Amino acid sequence: MGKVTVEALVDGGKATAGPPIGNQLGPLKVNTVQIVKEINEKTKELAGMKVPVKIIVDTETKKYNIIVGTPPISALIKKELNLEKGSGEAGKIRAGDITLEQAKRIAKAKFGSDDTPYLNQVIGSARSLGVTVGKGAITDEERKAAEAERQRMKAEAEKKAEAKGKAAPAATPSK
User: Fold this and answer.
1) Which of 18, 24, 54, 153 is most buried, taking the most CB atoms under 10 A from its CB?
2) What is the pLDDT of residues 73-87, one digit of tens each?
3) Boundaries of CATH 3.30.1550.10 in the chain?
């Protein structure tokens, strides 16, 4: 059969022998627990982020090689700012701000270089998350405005759901 490559996206330092890794490694009859232990050892410094992992298994000898990729740019930005998630309304609501130096550091971590094309990818990803570059910290005023906008949108969604529920006639059981 030769070599089989298993690819998965795992939580840094917290991979398990369950899905998705276990499902793919089980049929190959390799020591899944040992592989997961090694993945967790190699990804422990990336805790809290999704990390791409490739496991190349020689199906005849049962030997394997684990290649750990770098997390997505968005995960690196969120870790840098200690954010749980982006704004959800990029362009309207800021989730945070990174400095140009932080953006360069992220580009180097992801691509091994902070050349302009890589830096632009980081800046573009930041923008998609609602994270600005070099605009300064979020003010209390911006936080309040963002929360008010979220509440307004939530109320609007609830009204639409309620209106939709009233518009549909109640089903009557037929006898």
Assistant:
1) 24
2) 998 998 888 888 887
3) 3-68
